[in-house]
Amino acid sequence: MSSRGEIIQIHIGQAGVQIANACWELYCLEHGIMANGALCQMPNDDSFLTFFGISGMALKVVPRIVIVDTEPTVIDEIRTGAYRYLFHPDTLISGKEDAGSNFARGYNLLGHDLIDRTMDAIRRVAEQCRNLRGFLIFRAIGGGTGSGFGTLLLEKLSEAYGRKTTKAEFLVFPSPSLSPIIVEPYNALLATHYSMDYVDVSFIVDNEALYEICDTKLGVSAPTYTNLNRIIGQVVSAFTASQRFYGTNNVSFEEFQTNLVPYPRIHYPLLTYAPLVPVSKFPYVNSNVEQLTQSCFHPGSQMVRCNPTLGKYMACVLLYRGDVSPNDINSSIQQIKSSRTARFVDWTPTGFKIGVNAMPPVFVPGGDLAPTSRAVCAISNNTIIRSAWCRLVSKYDKLYNRRAFVYHFVGEGMEEGSLSEASQNVCQLVADYYEVESSARSSATQADNDD
């Protein structure tokens, strides 16, 4: 078993399943695992055991994963795709009908049909772990399955595994102007409200920000979900490298919550990744550590549409991998501090948590990203994330003021008051972020007056 413990990944709904394709494609490349789960050669260490268990067959591994959707179409693509022999069939769980972009339908009717099968599958995977560190969940909260069933599953995970087992999630958040589902605001608010107390940290991305990154940084003018999800896959790989590969200054799974979340409700960090270099510029671009670090604080690098310079940082974890030196990292951090590129609340003693892993980034052949010898992933808790919630509440108000589409949710067994309750909770979340920022501003003003 892995000396660092094991992590189970759970992919929910269409977005979660499609992200699974990108993540596990990359994990297999990183650990020398073929599409059928066979090891290319005898491993030199046990790094693969964080995400993979050993099958009964010689030199064969199986992912520690559960993939679930309320309808079979997307999971059937895995069952018949290139990686169909990688996943254990019992961990691919699908229902028979779509959640209809309806939180209440995913949570109530279809959710209760699937939840026992899903929890049984998770239990069987967990029983193969010697030291289960936690769960990593992937879902979109604009649709019915990710929002509704995802919330139900988080509730059941908390009941079964308690608070000692870390639960982190990657959320695909509704985009500011791209909205394929008209009731996205309802679904996202309900999912946020009902799952807030059951997850320790939620990393947010939105497709609009990823589209812009593909267009402006990678030269992909008409990106597909595969293009977007491979960017997410690189971020997840960087985030989990410390859990898998040995390093001089690794960050444990639990430390993300400890270092990023000052208050339980304030657990929605921003994500950035650098470098984002198109294949067309390989091998002419090779950014140094200072350039990589600086780019993590640029608004155009954020994976949610927001400008972090307009908010205050409460914490920032920088995860470096590959050809980096401690001196270069320290110099880069000092440059960030001296230039006030990142403004921190005054009660944060150091602000930065640094992780360093010698394993260089790996890239998918034929993908959009050029191979590089070093990379960094920044995970930052910044008060500006409130702008994403404000946009969501504004869209909700436009719908709910006319009671538009409310009957769809009530017809699936939900109380109408649940929508108002969810809106109030998210508005309070926005107020919580404002309070953190205003208290920091007041402290700074007081310090200036004292001078």
UniProtKB/TrEMBL annotation:
InterPro entries (UniProt xref): Alpha_tubulin, Tub_FtsZ_C, Tubulin, Tubulin/FtsZ-like_C, Tubulin/FtsZ_2-layer-sand-dom, Tubulin/FtsZ_GTPase_sf, Tubulin_C, Tubulin_CS
GO biological process: microtubule-based process
All copies of domain Tubulin/FtsZ GTPase, residue ranges: 48-247
Alphabetical keyword list: Cytoplasm, Cytoskeleton, GTP-binding, Hydrolase, Magnesium, Metal-binding, Microtubule, Nucleotide-binding
Subcellular location: Cytoplasm, Cytoskeleton
Key word Cytoplasm present: yes
SMART domains: Tubulin, Tubulin_C
Cofactors named for this entry: Mg(2+)
GO CC terms in record: microtubule
Keyword Nucleotide-binding part of the UniProt annotation: yes
Source species, domain of life: Eukaryota
PANTHER family reported in the protein's UniProt record: TUBULIN (PTHR11588)
Protein task: Tubulin is the major constituent of microtubules, a cylinder consisting of laterally associated linear protofilaments composed of alpha- and beta-tubulin heterodimers. Microtubules grow by the addition of GTP-tubulin dimers to the microtubule end, where a stabilizing cap forms. Below the cap, tubulin dimers are in GDP-bound state, owing to GTPase activity of alpha-tubulin.
Record's protein name: Tubulin alpha chain
Species annotation: Zeugodacus cucurbitae
Origin organism lineage: Eukaryota, Metazoa, Ecdysozoa, Arthropoda, Hexapoda
Name of encoding gene: TUBA1D
